[in-house]
Amino acid sequence: KMAPPVMQFARLSLVNTNICRVAGNLINAKQGDQQVYGFATLKHGSATTLPVPPKRPPTGFILFANDARPNVVKQNPSLKPTEVIRAIAARWRSADESTKQKYTALSKLRREEFIKQKELYDTKLTVQQKEALKEVAIEKKLKSTKKKLHETLRQLERPKGPRSAYVLFTTAKRSDVQARLPKEVMTTLAQMWKELPEEKKKPYHEKAEVDRARYESEMVAWMKRMDKEGKWEVLNDLKEDIRELRKEHDPLKKSSSKS
Fold it and tell me: What is the DSSP code (8-state) at residue 105?
């Protein structure tokens, strides 16, 4: 029997929301690096090493941007990176068709070369490396889907989860400990909590109960709003995607840890 929506999505607070936000530059002129990564760099137990695959070919716009960037920066040295990108995009939009066609054609040539390199790369992979690459791809998609779920829940203003007594304690004491022992904040707070008499922990436990009641009340109201606005389908779809990706990922992870 499936749990009601309020129970299902109360458990969504367990989804890891501490997802790294990786800000990458749109323009990367560095090409052709040859490296070999061990799986340890990807937090895997396998010793399988993977030659870096051929880089995907840049689009016509990216090729144009790589050429235009030095000139834009020179003419506008005070622009922030995001403003530089906007300026380049404006130049691309106003460029004549012959310019766009030149970069589009160059991108097409790069893509044809990429396909050849990728085919050669694939033929040289061992069975273990192919499994490792599959695991990395699934892991990347899983991470992306979790991030999308987290962002969707944030946009839908899901109530913040209840704070524990320990979290309330560390929040109250952190600034003082940070000032005295900036390099030992967490270990110091943990020790302080451990040594705190039960009588002095009691106020934090009481506050935690109040916060839990707040959370449960807000969640009930939020669930009703989700029902009214018909938002369950998109959330259920994302949750199902995560479940299916984990089914694919877990056996591969076990296999790689044994190799």
Answer: H
